[in-house]
Design goal:
The protein is α/β, with parallel strands linked by helices. 43% of the residues lie in helices and 11% in strands. The protein has two domains: 101 residues, no CATH class; 121 residues, no CATH class. The protein contains seven helices and eight strands; from the N terminus they run H-E-E-E-H-H-E-E-E-E-E-H-H-H-H. About 4% of the residues have low confidence.
Amino acid sequence: MDSENDAKKLQHAVGKESRKEGTSDLSKKQTEIAKELIASGIYKTNRQSEQLYHYANGIYNRNGEARIKEQIHQRLDGAESTNFCSEVIGKVQRGTYIDLEAFTDHTEHKIVVENGILDLDTLQILGHTPEWLSLIKFPVNYKKETTCPRILKFLSEIARPEDIPVLQEWIGYNLWTSGYQAQKAMLLVGDGGNGKSTFIGILEALIGRQNRSAVSLHELEDNRFAKADLFGKSS
């Protein structure tokens, strides 16, 4: 009987030790993957909300967790568990914290467009880089010498000559994503069929539907949470 009990105890001890080794190996693998993802420099986490962002195509996108799960799945050939993914994601979050303002409070006046980063002070195009923290990319290519004759013709048909520069300036304000100090709003008034909707359509095509918010002034006044919908939007 003693020999039988000793054998069971030994078997239990070996099994327990094996589980410890297995858990330790798992933890090491999680840490290894997390360190590689952090070192890549393309993940950032909002310290306030724990939102995990992934950099791709010039901007940080709100799909960081999904991207990490995809990376793990490919690396482990589908052998990962939900808990394994959660552990890696948690490690990446804790290793990439930044303040929310890092996305908006830039001292340099730059915007992201399809063909690079446009310096608004020099009008030079720079290459996309994850070092420039931005959530907004405008769906256009910047070409310095290009003019827009059809748009200029349209503006001349709906506005007085002295008002055209104001409309153009207003369009420019909507591209100013950081350090915006104008604190101005524009109201388009007039009867139907005078170009207001077309003008707004041009503006929306320039900034991108995904970069504008439809929150009304009434909502901003009455709902203290409505301002959250403005984050990551240019207009």
